[in-house]
Each structure stands twice: as C-alpha cells, then as structure tokens.
Amino acid sequence: xxxxxxxxxxxxxxxxxxxxxxxxEYVPGESATAYKNVSEDEYYFKGHFPGNPIMPGVLIVESLxxxxxxxxxxxxxxxxxxxxxxxxxxxxxxxxxVPGDRLKLEVKIIKKKGPxxxxxxxATVDGKVAVKxxxxxxxx
Length: 140
What we know:
This protein is α+β, with helices and mostly antiparallel strands.
C-alpha cells in the first residue's frame, strides 16, 4: 500500500490536483489499483453542483489517468518523467460519484509501443461501474 507521500515519489501531480489517496497494489509497467476517498470538502463541489454535489466525470478520468501513471512511471526507465494524455476512447459514464463514495480505480496497461501506451481503465463504487474506457498516454 502506498500513501500520498509515496505516490508523490512516482507521479508529479500535487494538491489540489493529486486525485488519488492511496495505491493498493501496482506492478510496474503492467497495472495499478488505487482509491480516491470522495470528501464533501473537495474544492470542486462548491460549484459542481451547489446542493447536489457530483464529482465531475473529467476528474474521475483524471483519477484513472493518475492511477495508470503510477503503473507506467514506476518503471525504472520512466522515473522522473511524466505521462500525458494522448487520447480517450470507448469511455462510458455509468454512475454518479458523490461525497462519501470510495472510488476504486483500476488500470491495466494493454499496449505499449515506444513512449505511447494504452490503459484499460475502470472506476467503481461498491462494486458498481462508474466509468469504463481506454486511456492513451505518452511518456515525456
């Protein structure tokens, strides 16, 4: 299990944009499973939406991307580098994510060629799919 400080040793994101709280497990270059504890104090709930707080879908996708970045940037040859979005494909939103939810984030790297790769991404809450799709990344 990695805590936030250990996560920051692998990926460059920092608060308020570090979107994962802990990493349960990871295999460098292959996969990672992380969690985001969605708190009512999140900065984005002030405007999304007052009286009906819903985690923005794009931030769920960012949480998945950061989870995938743990897998790919933990490889020895990628230490100190960054993983940027190259594309988003087959993405579907299936469930709202709200304060109090514990978002489970799973990314499996399914393709790599040079500095480009694709991760199969799945975000769930209590075993129910919230977001599912493929994320393309570029190592820079």
